[in-house]
Amino acid sequence: MGERDPDPEPGLGRPDRDRPDDHEPVPAGDPVPDGEDHPVPTNRNPPPVANATANLTLLDEKNMVFIYNRTAFTYDLENPPLLIDYTLTVPNITKTRVVTDPVSGDDETVTITYPDPAAAFEVTVRDLKTKRVLLQNGYGGNYDVAYSKQLWVRYPGNYYIELFGTRLTADIKFWVLNGT
Description:
Blueprint: E1 56-66, E2 69-77, E3 82-89, E4 92-100, E5 107-115, E6 120-127, E7 133-139, E8 148-153, E9 157-166, E10 168-177
Antiparallel strand pairs: 1-10, 2-9, 3-8, 3-10, 4-5, 6-7, 6-9
């Protein structure tokens, strides 16, 4: 059989060898003098966020109770955008259980409250002519669990807007550009 090289390339396979014994720390860099005084950074508050509905007019407002139902309507959007702004009220489920402490043997009553896991909401915006889904978002199921969202339709067109929900209440506002 062939012989093995006891020391392959320096630094490979033998981390204890071929290293300098005297490790000097890398010196910290000094700022490069450019002859100018630079201001010291300070913390400051970010500028105020502009109101998303400042240039919009409230087209319609609905408060709807959804119990495994859906509703739909059409809207011809000539001057985009259309803002669908909704806030959901999801009922809570409260369960009370008696648990026994394994150490002391005492019974304790525990109450747990959480949002109804069966609650869901979905907004679907379709192009009325092509039936293509342009926007779809919601709460629960395949979506996150944010109780309020703003959905923007940014292109002109004739739209079919469908709202579907289960076991919740939705406050929905439709906003359009001022003057439309």
